[in-house]
Amino acid sequence: VQEEKIFAGKVLRLHVCTMEGAEWLEEVAEDTTVEKLKERCLKHCLPGSLEDPKTVTHHKLIHATSEKVLTDTKTVLEENIQDRDVLLLVKKRAPTLLPKMSDVVAEEKRKQEQKAPDKDAILKATANLPARSVDRSVTHHNMRDFQTELRKILVSLIEVAQKLLALNPDAVELFKKANAMLDEDEEDRVDEIALRQLTEMGFPESRAVKALRLNHMSVTQAMEWLIEHADDPSVDAPLPGSAPAEAPAEGAASSAEAAAGPSSEEGEEEAKDELTEIFKKIRRKREFRPDPRAVIALMEMGFDEKEVVDALRVNNNQQNAACEWLLGDRKPSPEDLDKGIDTNSPLFQAILENPVVQLGLTNPKTLLAFEDMLENPLNSTQWMNDPETGPVMLQISRIFQTLNRT
User: Fold this and answer.
1) Which of 339, 332, 288 is nearest to 309 (CA)?
2) CA separation for the pair 155, 380 (Å, rounded)
3) pLDDT at 277
């Protein structure tokens, strides 16, 4: 008996697999090196491949369980391979060849040719072309101009509407009707588009109606109110009825009857006083209401409450815009909001000469719409969709756009 067989190590049965799907069993002693095992595997799956000395070095054995690459110089025992373990024979990936310098230069040249021209190149190439479309930046600037000018237009149109309605023999009755219409608008009327937006978010209809009435039909403020009062036990309690609002109307009617009794001069004075009071009442109902959350957030930055309210009023309750206004040059100022447009300007004259606008200015509802949009610009959509006030706003917008292009 040969000595090496007497002192031979333990024989292990190993399961070997290749990437092509071949499988077989190899019996090896514990002291067999990984390199020898690899040669036996290559003889089995690639006969004749060992003629090339690089074949062994171009392959490697991997322990399937630990995913460890076995070292050629170590033995099976040193690599802690156990009986019935699975080994994977794979060919090493060829190293990636570095690109030639000529190929790199060609690729960079191709990229430069496909690169889009910059702004200067576009302007140079189109310098002699006639202008056929409006620049987007100019369009955006014009939109901002319209929002700024619209407020001035509304201020001046309110003065005209008040004068026209005051000249009407039935002025007091008209403004009583307007005041009652305002009460009805606040208590009964709901913007259907705003209501649908809230109900589609999952809020109950009755609760959404209440939130819209409390927040001047503003969807954003109504949604915040609904979220804040979601756990409030009185959130579904109905708003106070319209009964108290009827009493002043009756009182106003009796005062109108009493005013009709005296002589014409005294009656005119009392009528003017009554009109003044009704104007004040309408304006009080349409007072600007700052967003409480925005007020708190901006005051926490260190701004004074009055400054914050002014900023929100100037920027239509938009918190980010109000913050920029506070940190910037603060233009326009709150005082500028009460300034009207130049009554001798072509724009204002064109608006006043429009038949639709002229007819609308004799309607008390138009005056209410102007007052509301002046103090609460977020409600402009509601008035644009109204069959009585919408055509007037559409004509104002068209006239502005037409004159702004010329």
Assistant:
1) 288
2) 15
3) 62
Element (H, E) at 36: helix 34-45
Distance CA 56, CA 301 (A): 73
H-type helices in 126-191, by residue range?
Answer: 136-167, 171-187
Angle at Cα 62 formed by Cα 59 and Cα 66, nearest 5°? 165
Residues 58 and 39: beta-carbon distance below 8 Å: no
Q: Compute the average pLDDT of residues 130-154.
A: 60
Which helix (H) or strand (E) segment holds residue 22: the answer is none
Q: In this structure, what DSSP letter does residue 237 have?
A: S
User: How many angstroms separate the CA atoms of 357 and 387, rounded?
Assistant: 14
Strand order in the sheet with 86-91: 23-29, 11-18, 86-91, 59-63, 68-69
| Tokens found for residue 7 | 């002192």
Residue position matching structure tokens 């062994």: 56
Q: Yes or no: say if 206 and 239 are a contact pair by the CB < 8 Å rule.
A: no
Share of the chain above pLDDT 70, in %: 73
Distance CA 33, CA 30 (A): 8
Tokens of 325: 């206004």
**Is the predicted pLDDT of residue 395 greater than 80, yes or no?**
yes
Q: Which of the given ranges, 200-209, 219-228, 274-283, has the highest pLDDT on average?
A: 200-209
Residue indicated by tokens 């292990």: 12
Which among 183, 182, 218, 225 has a CA at the least distance from the CA of 203?
225
DSSP codes of every residue in 357-372: HHHHHTSHHHHHHHHH
Q: How many CA atoms lie within 13 A of 47 on its CB side?
A: 0
Helices (H), 59-135: 101-114, 119-125
Q: Measure the CA–CA gap between 33 and 78, rounded to whole angstroms.
A: 9
Residue 212: count other Cβ atoms within 10 Å of its Cβ. 25
- Helices 264-285 and 171-187 cross at an angle (nearest 10°) of 20
Question: Residue 247: pLDDT band by 50, 70, 90 thresholds?
Answer: very low
Question: Both tokens of residue 151?
Answer: 């407020």
Question: Nearest to residue 207, comparing CAs of 175, 179, 239?
Answer: 239
